[in-house]
Specification:
This protein is of the alpha/beta class. 41% of the residues lie in helices and 13% in strands.
């Protein structure tokens, strides 16, 4: 099955949006998962930049806000952020609004948030998104970044608690490598709830540079009739969305091209 292939824009760091769109279009991709500062560029301008280059906006990457915080002001700030993201997304078309837990170093950290508060906040933003005819996509991360939603089973349980028809699951091959005992089973059990599949090898580099069995992943996507985009997300060693880490553009382009070539041929290529 030929699926559309997109790129997470945050992996390019602070590159100007027009240059970023030019680079992605020149590499032959179909679209993007967009990470953008709402205050710096309007939705209309962002939409035009990518539309002029025949690139779709498949999804939006959020900033790091805390939907599960026990501090009501922090939690309300997070909810308000997602509502702004939904408003922004509605002007772009019908992108999936990706959401996840608050990211922080889990070693020797104290956290006062709760899974119950996370579910309550997600219920509120899911209702807001439904009014805009948009879907949310909750992404499990990994134990080094967060603490509640680490696996597909965790995500499915959260969806049951939220009980909203427009909240779905985003699976990331890199995080699955760390947390899932069987990534193929994870894909299969998400089934029609899987709205987005993000991809980087086990070392968060291009496909073929780690040990992930992507043939089995793609076979599982075929088995559940997944028709969404595949979003490439190779990243720097300590890079996260919005971080100030210096980006090696040539390395990012190498990993993207290598991954794209593999997806189009399903054959590992030599470095």
């Amino acid at each position: 099955m030929r699926r559309k292939i997109g790129v997470c824009t945050w992996i390019f760091g602070e590159i100007e949006l027009v240059s970023l769109a030019d680079t992605i279009a020149a590499m032959g991709f179909d679209g993007v998962e967009l990470y953008v500062d709402f205050e710096r560029i309007s939705a209309k301008e962002a939409k035009n930049i990518f539309a002029d280059r025949a690139l779709e906006i498949f999804s939006l990457t959020p900033i790091n806000v805390d939907l599960a915080s026990s501090d009501i002001s922090s939690r309300n700030k997070a909810i308000d952020y997602y509502k702004k993201a939904i408003d922004y997304g509605a002007e772009l078309g019908e992108p999936i609004i990706v959401c996840h837990e608050y990211i922080q170093n889990q070693f020797n950290s104290v956290y006062l948030g709760s899974l119950e508060l996370l579910a309550e906040a997600c219920q509120e933003i899911a209702l807001y998104a439904r009014q805009a005819n948009l879907n949310l996509g909750f992404e499990p991360l990994n134990r080094y970044l967060c603490r509640f939603i680490l696996t597909s089973t965790d995500a499915l349980n959260l969806l049951t608690e939220i009980n909203a028809s427009n909240i779905t699951i985003v699976l990331d091959a890199f995080h699955m490598n760390l947390e899932e005992s069987d990534p193929v089973k994870a894909i299969m059990q998400c089934g029609e709830k899987l709205s987005l599949y993000q991809i980087a090898d086990s070392n968060r580099q291009g496909i073929g540079l780690g040990h992930t069995d992507f043939n089995s992943h793609l076979a599982a996507l075929d088995a559940i009739n997944y028709t969404g985009a595949i979003i490439l997300e190779p990243a720097g060693l300590r890079q996260t969305p919005g971080s100030s880490e210096k980006v090696n553009l040539d390395a990012i382009k190498f990993h993207l091209q290598k991954s794209k070539n593999w997806l189009l041929t399903k054959t590992k290529t030599l470095v």
